[in-house]
Write a structure and sequence with these properties.
The protein is of the alpha/beta class and about 450 residues long. It has a domain at about 1-115 and about 255-335: FAD/NAD(P)-binding domain (3-Layer(bba) Sandwich), CATH 3.50.50. The chain is built from 12 helices and 26 strands. Mean pLDDT is about 85; it is low at about 395-445.
């Protein structure tokens, strides 16, 4: 039996699985091929709606899909990858119960994504919030909801990319419904917010800044977050901002896997891929773990959900070709656009270079994001919740959860759940932070 092993539970894995399930349908039915997924998180997190979750417009559970539901033809191993042995073509991992295990592969797809470099900011991991670890978004949403219902404490968001801007707006939005408005500080080390967007779409960048002014977000440029304490955030200019909540959208670093360290990496630690997304014979990589070159410019593609999805699907297709003894094909996707929300019915979007703002941009974003949710049932519920909220003219927060940070937070409308097999062309924003958040583009590439 031939085996394809997928590492990670994010966009790369789900879309690689999609292509593998399509192209290997016969061999899978006959038991000639096996797909194995190894992931430390038993559910896939759809980060496109992180802002809506944090703002209370959506329950966190709407954005989570069990991997066994999204990938029903795969064998799922709940565990943390320890190392890869290229010579033996094997992956060593530690199961959730702590027991060691290994699995051999004929084709390996690395989609382990990235994590925020929390260690670069003292106190951030202990006293702040990030976006990529399991449970972190849920804990952040609970904290913000508690703050909005209380005495109007301050919130500090570090990072001026799409992720930071979108989340600052989301938190400011929920704060406006509280007994006393939240004070939201957005801290960015650059001279202007949304630097990459500003280069190609200055009108959209200006609109985003206008939305932040409308929401009374206090923007501080040219300063970095240097320390997080239980009572607030210290900045590089010596300023201390008292705050009950500090969120870091400070970029990411790829998850490093022993055994792949000898492979060529760029200065950010990403695996350098060939034009067909191969790393070496039988190994493919995509998403935040990989440096994927744009077919036209040769520059690295953006670290966001759209590129992870498209590259993951291509890696899956090439792995299937390899099992069939066929030549791989180069990755030639050129991109589609990006989008961000600044509250229900308000947004910015770029589609094939064309800018959109306001309600139209928001609905474009919603439509394309929904097409990429692994669960049709959850997508229908998200659409219902958000459209109803827009028609009502405000957020609805149905969360009944404690604001307390519990230990370590990293700890049938359309026919019910379905296998994740479809072929759409989505407009996905950056999950920065992801990515990110870049989208929220956040993890799990």
């Amino acid at each position: 039996m031939q085996r394809v092993v997928l590492l990670g539970g994010g966009y790369v894995t789900l879309h690689a699985y999609d292509r593998l399930a399509r192209r290997l349908a016969g061999p899978l039915r006959r038991g000639e091929v096996e797909i194995v997924i190894v992931s430390a998180d038993a559910s896939h997190s759809f980060h496109g709606f992180t802002g809506e979750v944090v703002a209370g417009a959506l329950p966190y559970e709407r954005t989570r899909t069990p991997i066994t539901e999204a990938c029903p033809l795969a064998r799922f191993e709940h565990g943390r990858v320890v190392s890869v042995d290229l010579a033996r073509r094997a992956v060593m991992f530690e199961r959730a119960d702590g027991s060691p295990a290994s699995v051999g592969y004929d084709q390996l797809i690395v989609g382990t994504g990235g994590r925020e470099p929390a260690a670069t900011v003292p106190g951030l991991a202990e006293h702040g919030f990030l976006l990529r670890a399991p449970g972190e978004i849920e804990a952040l949403a609970a904290r913000v909801a508690s703050a909005a219902a209380g005495r109007g404490e301050a919130v500090v968001v570090a990072g001026g990319g799409l992720a930071g801007v979108e989340l600052a707006a989301a938190i400011a939005n929920i704060g406006r419904s509280g007994s006393e408005p939240l004070t939201v500080h957005l801290v960015h080390s650059g001279t202007a917010l949304l630097g990459e967007l500003r280069l190609t779409q200055p009108r959209l960048a200006a609109r985003a800044e206008a939305e932040l002014r409308r929401l009374e977000v206090r923007v501080r440029l040219g300063v970095r977050l240097t320390e997080v304490t239980p009572s607030g955030a210290r900045l590089s200019d010596g300023t201390f901002l008292p705050a009950g909540t500090v969120l870091g959208t400070i970029g990411q670093r790829p998850v490093s896997l022993p055994g792949l360290d000898a492979r060529l990496r760029d200065d950010l630690g990403r695996l350098v891929t060939a034009s067909d997304l191969s790393v070496c014979q039988g190994v493919w990589a995509a998403g935040d773990a990989a440096r994927v070159a744009h077919v036209t410019t040769g520059e690295p593609v953006a670290s966001n959900a759209l590129w992870a999805i498209k590259a993951g699907a291509h890696a899956g297709a090439n792995a299937a070709r390899a099992l069939h003894g066929r030549a791989s094909r180069p990755f030639t996707y050129r991109g589609l656009g990006q989008a961000a929300s600044f509250g229900l019915g308000r947004g910015i979007a770029e589609l094939y270079g064309m800018p959109f703002t306001g309600r139209l941009a928001w609905f474009l974003r919603l439509t394309f994001f929904l097409r990429f949710m692994p669960s049709r049932r959850r997508a229908a519920l998200v659409a219902r919740d958000l459209v109803q909220a827009v028609l009502r003219g405000g957020h609805r927060s149905g969360r009944q959860q404690s604001s307390k940070r519990i230990g370590d937070p990293r700890l049938e409308l359309l026919g019910g759940p379905r296998p994740f097999v479809h072929e759409q062309h989505p407009l996905l924003g950056s999950v920065d932070a992801p990515h990110d958040v870049g989208d929220l583009a956040v993890e799990q590439a």
